[in-house]
Structure formats: C-alpha cells, structure tokens
Amino acid sequence: MPSPVTEQGPATFELWKWAWVAAMVVGVLTWGLIFYSSWRFRRRSEDEVPVQVRYNLPLEIFYTVAPIMMVVVFFYWTVNVQNEMTEMVDDPDVTVDVVGQQWSWTFNYTEQGEGGSTPYTVGTTQIQPDLVLPVDQRVQFNLHSPDVIHSFGVPAFLTKLDVVPGRVNKFQATPNEIGTYVGKCFELCGAYHSRMLFNVQVVSQADYEQYLADLEEQGSVADAPLLGGSDALTQAGLDDPSEDEVEEAGQAEDDDEEGGQE
Ligand SMILES: [Cu+2]
C-alpha cells in the first residue's frame, strides 16, 4: 500500500489495515477450531467410530449471527470512509477539469490562471502529461470523457473514480506532501490503455502559480476548460470513421501498419 499523501488518504489506509486485522482474527480462530476438533475428535482405534453428531441449534444460530455481525461492522466502517472520501465542500481552493480520452489526459486548471483564464495541458500516447497541484489546497476534480469509460486514479491518493462519458463524476482531495507521484487509467479502455499514464507533482503555492504562468506563456490557455472530443479522434491508433471503407478493402495492409506503429 503506498503511503497516503492526501488528507483523506489515511482513512482508506486505516480501513484496509483494520479489515485485514479483522480477517486475520477470524481466520486464525477458524483454523484453530478446525485443527482442534479434527485432533480432539479423531478416530483413536480401528474398531472405534467417533460419536456421530447431527444438528446443533446453538452452533447453527452462532454461525448465522456471527457472519451477519461481521458484515454489519465492515459495512459501517466502509460507509464512514466512503463518506469522507466523497465529501464535497462548496468552495474548493482549486478546480481541475480532467478529461480522459483515448489514450491520454487533458488537465484544465479551471479559472486558475491570470484574470480567471484556464491554463491546460494535453498528453498524448507518446507524451505523459503532468498534473501540477498546490500543496495543502483542497482540489476538486471534475472528470469528463468524450469517448469511453476511463478511471482516474493516483495510487498515492488512495482513491480513484470512473470517468464516464455523458456524466461528470467529481471528487475532492487535499494533497499534503510535496513530491512527484504516478497516476494512470484504471479501466481497460482500448488498445493503448496502458499508455494513459501521468505524473502528479505536488508543489508549493509559488511553484504552482509559476507553472500556470508558464503554461500561459506557452499559449496553453483557454477561456473555458477544453473537454475533448475533436482532440480524441486525432490520437494515434484510433480509426477515422470516414476511412472505414478503405480499411475493409485493404485489411491486411492496415494490420501491417498497426504492427509498425507498435
Ligand atoms: Cu483510459
């Protein structure tokens, strides 16, 4: 388990840890009872048959009630942690509109630039984009997809969320440790799914502002978030629908070409 680098992360970590402890306690108890009873009630001689028992009401009630109690406890703590991980405040410090497209990411720093502009960065299958976030600021991620279902996740945040076309999933996290972390798509989304990698850089507020200024200087700035669509169709490996007929005619040729791109 990666060590959590957000304020919310430890909740997931604690749930995971105590779930294992609980499972281990139940496991040891169960194994213990199995080994004890198979030893204690074993057959002792050739002509002796151990007492044959059927139906034990107290035992049957116990093994019905005990698992129900376990599920109730797991459920209670899961809901608690889920509420914490999905909690949304109305005024997050930073909003990033994330676009997962086949097969990379676009990060829009919505209204974070000078005069409320939106600096952005776009990755490709060849170039992994950076997601730069200011430390100790609550960040809201709005997740968009113009094509298929992706999943946006940063292991060090101990959370991820599906990116679904036609709806905007949202979550908030507060990174609290400066550093570089890896992120990727967690939902098999097509041929180059494995290239949907990105780096998360958690930096100081000053470095964050500098980064946005640099993006603006490079001309990577828009009035509103770029939510993908037309860009997604230009990604290497995606078929242009207008080429369908050509492709059918020259299937073998196309296969060669795809092999070459690998
Ligand atoms: Cu994906």
Query: How many helices in DSSP terms?
Result: 5
The pLDDT mean sits at: 87
Largest sheet: 6 strands, mixed
Give the helix/strand class. alpha+beta
Spell out the CATH superfamily of the largest domain: Cupredoxins -  blue copper proteins
Enumerate the spans where pLDDT stays under 50 for 5 or more consecutive residues. 231-238, 243-262
Helix content: 25-40%
The strands making up the biggest β-sheet line up spatially as 8-5-1-2-3-11
Globular, elongated, flat, extended or rod-shaped: what is the shape?
A: elongated
Order of helices and strands: HHEEEEEEEEEEHEHH
Q: Might you state the CATH topology name of the largest domain?
A: Immunoglobulin-like
- What amount of the residues lies in strands? 15-25%
Q: How many domains, in number, for the residues? A: 2
Describe the structure in your own words:
It contains five helices and eleven strands; from the N terminus they run H-H-E-E-E-E-E-E-E-E-E-E-H-E-H-H. With 262 residues, it is an alpha+beta fold. The chain has a six-stranded mixed sheet with strand order 8-5-1-2-3-11, covered by helices on one side. The chain has a five-stranded mixed sheet with strand order 4-10-9-6-7, covered by helices on one side. The two termini are 32 Å apart. 25% of the residues are buried. It binds copper (II) ion (CU). Copper (II) ion (CU) is lined by residues 100, 150, 185, 187, 189, 193, 196.
